[in-house]
Design brief:
Elements (H helix, E strand, L loop, with lengths): L2 E3 L2 E6 L5 H10 L3 E4 L1 H9 L5 E2 H5 L14 H8 L5 H9 L7 E5 L3 H6 L4 H6 L4 H11 L5 E3 L5 H11 L2 E3 H30 L13 E5 L11 E4 L12 E4 L5 H15 L7 E6 L2 E7 L3 H11 L1 H4 L2 E5 L5 H7 L4 E6 L4 H8 L5 E4 L11 E6 L2 E6 L11 E2 L7 H14 L7 E5 L2 E6 L5 H19 L10 E4 L6 H9 L4 E4 L6 H11 L2 E4 L8
Parallel strand pairs: 2-3, 2-5, 3-4, 5-6, 13-14, 14-15, 21-22, 22-23
Antiparallel strand pairs: 1-7, 8-9, 10-15, 11-12, 11-13, 16-17, 18-23, 19-20, 19-21
Helix pairs in contact: 4-8, 8-10, 12-14, 14-15, 17-18, 18-19
Length: 529
């Protein structure tokens, strides 16, 4: 059966957006309207003739509305295979009328949770009859049309107009697929609430993961790969996925990944002095704080202006015109900021391909949640790396304690290092990264690469010495041997911050003492793979 004429529609919606208009359009096409509770009242208020569901079933709505559509007169009309003689006979014997169209959206479970309702109210907002009708109609899409989203009302009316009051199988299949996605996401939200909020299970036996497609992207990491952006269905934090794109080309898969990395690091400086983060291929290549954004930008860029070409920039406060002008002096793919003033927007507008993303706020770097990484045949799931340390958490392990400035530089370097791919080494001085070594297979090479970049910057800008001289150096994990630490000492670092915990800690501490370094242990590692 390809086309099914819509003669009877069952409407039961929590979100009544567009309901009156839909009811009027269906009634004008001669469709009988059957409805429940508040939906029926809303339709009658719009001047429409509506048949109550209790009239159809022969039973009143009962138990505070918990039981109203769970009845053979409803589900028989939805599930019957109409060209099956046995089904047709059962419908005739029990006076079950066919239902051709179901319009249902579900109780507002997510909104109830988000407003902080008590547990009993949350439980009452778990829809039972709605999903049952949706699934029945979607399963029997050969004969029944199901709509779960008011955004699809215009498409339904256009379909009825094009076919003289019927729907095509292609349309019903498309709506059925959307319906099953809607109930799956709804059940996943409920499952997540029970597991995480109600039962405090970080890793439930069954992990429900869902998402709503925001857009398909041009391609994935490489042009031969396909990609799309999804956002979680249900309560979730806001970040790059929710940012307003003010201008520029469509964001690519890599743009999203790099912009997210930049925003996450910029968020570490939320509420602090102006900060600028420059990221390339998900790794910071320059980070700085300053008295102003323009000063922070200039210092961050000087760390590695070669890698900054074609990079991503994130800042921790609204952008001004002077900083925008400076950023536009080099090729930049994406700029991320909480906001931008009119002067900054006008300057960026001259760079039509540059993407400007405004987040409105910065995410909380200490927020909880899970991260998920696919592997062959499974998923790796872990809690977010939201651990943090302060000066009081540090353990001084060398004879010389760090000075007040060295301690500040250690903490700044440590903040940056947690966002650098392992093995990570970060030199910092006066709130500015001097050199960053990322993703090497051993820590000594990371130390040397970071120092080499700092030396190149000193030569390029005509500084008297590398900024690693007198700097603090952070290592995301312990030094397994003294060689990485000695490489940092050779570069001029005077203070070291690292987790500790190696079987060779005594050897490393002794090497630091011999070199006159101050070293502190954090007791916390920040690998990033």
């Amino acid at each position: 059966m390809t086309e099914v004429t819509v003669r009877r529609a069952l409407l039961s919606v929590s979100d009544k957006t567009g309901l009156a208009e839909l009811g009027q359009a269906l009634a004008a096409r001669g469709v009988e309207l059957v409805s429940t509770g508040g939906t029926a009242r809303a339709l009658r208020d719009a001047g429409l003739s509506v048949r109550d569901i209790s009239d159809l079933t022969g039973f009143p709505e009962m138990m505070d509305g918990r039981v109203k559509t769970l009845h053979p007169m409803v589900h028989g009309g939805l599930l019957a295979v109409r060209d099956d003689p046995a089904h047709a006979a059962a419908m005739a014997d029990h006076a079950i009328g066919a239902i051709d169209l179901v319009v249902v959206n579900l109780y507002p479970f997510e909104a109830t949770v988000m407003r902080g309702a008590d547990r009993d109210t949350i439980i009452e907002n778990i829809d039972i009859g709605g999903p049952s009708m949706v699934r029945s109609a979607a399963k029997n899409h050969r004969y029944v049309t199901i709509l779960t989203d008011a955004a699809d009302y215009p498409a339904l009316l256009a379909e009825l107009d094009a076919t003289g009051g019927a729907t095509t199988l292609a349309f019903r299949k498309r709506m059925a697929a959307r319906a099953f996605s809607a109930t799956a996401a709804y059940d996943a939200m409920i499952s997540q609430w029970f597991a995480f909020a109600d039962q405090q299970q970080l890793f439930p036996e069954m992990l429900a993961v869902n998402g709503k497609r925001v857009s398909e992207l041009r391609y994935g990491e490489n042009p031969h790969q396909r990609a799309a952006l999804y956002t979680p269905v249900g309560p979730h934090g806001k970040g790059i996925a929710q940012a307003e794109q003010v201008q520029g080309k469509e964001l690519s898969y890599n743009n999203y990944a790099d912009a997210d990395a930049a925003l996450e690091l910029a968020a570490e400086f939320r509420g602090q002095d102006p900060a600028v983060v420059i990221v390339k291929h998900a790794n910071p290549c320059g980070v700085a704080q300053g008295a102003s954004l323009i000063e922070a930008w200039q210092a961050a860029l000087a760390c590695d202006d070669v890698s900054a070409f074609g990079g991503i920039v994130a800042v921790n406060r609204p952008l001004d015109g002077a900083t925008a002008e400076a950023i536009c002096a080099i090729f930049t793919e994406v700029v991320v900021a909480p906001a931008a003033d009119e002067a900054a927007r006008a300057i960026f507008a001259r760079k039509k391909n540059l993407r400007l993303l405004l987040t409105g706020d910065l995410p909380d770097p200490r927020r909880g949640g899970l991260t998920i990484k696919p592997i062959t045949g499974g998923l790796l799931v872990q809690s977010r790396d939201n651990g943090a340390i302060s000066a009081s958490d540090l353990k001084i392990v060398t004879r010389r304690a760090p000075t007040e400035q060295e301690l500040k530089d250690c903490l700044f370097a440590w903040t940056v290092a947690r966002h650098v791919k392992s093995n990570a080494i970060v030199y910092a001085k006066d709130g500015v990264t001097a050199g960053i070594g990322a993703g090497q297979m051993n820590r000594r090479d990371s130390s040397r690469i970071a120092a080499m970049k700092a030396a190149e910057a000193a030569e390029k800008f005509g500084w008297a010495q590398s900024r690693t001289v007198g700097s603090a150096v952070a290592s995301d994990a312990f030094f397994p041997f003294a060689d990485g630490l000695l490489a940092a000492a050779e570069a001029g670092a005077t203070a070291v911050i690292q987790p500790g915990g190696s079987i060779r800690d005594e050897e490393v501490v002794a090497a630091a003492d011999e070199a006159g370094l101050a070293m502190v242990f954090t007791g916390m590692r920040h690998f990033r793979h």
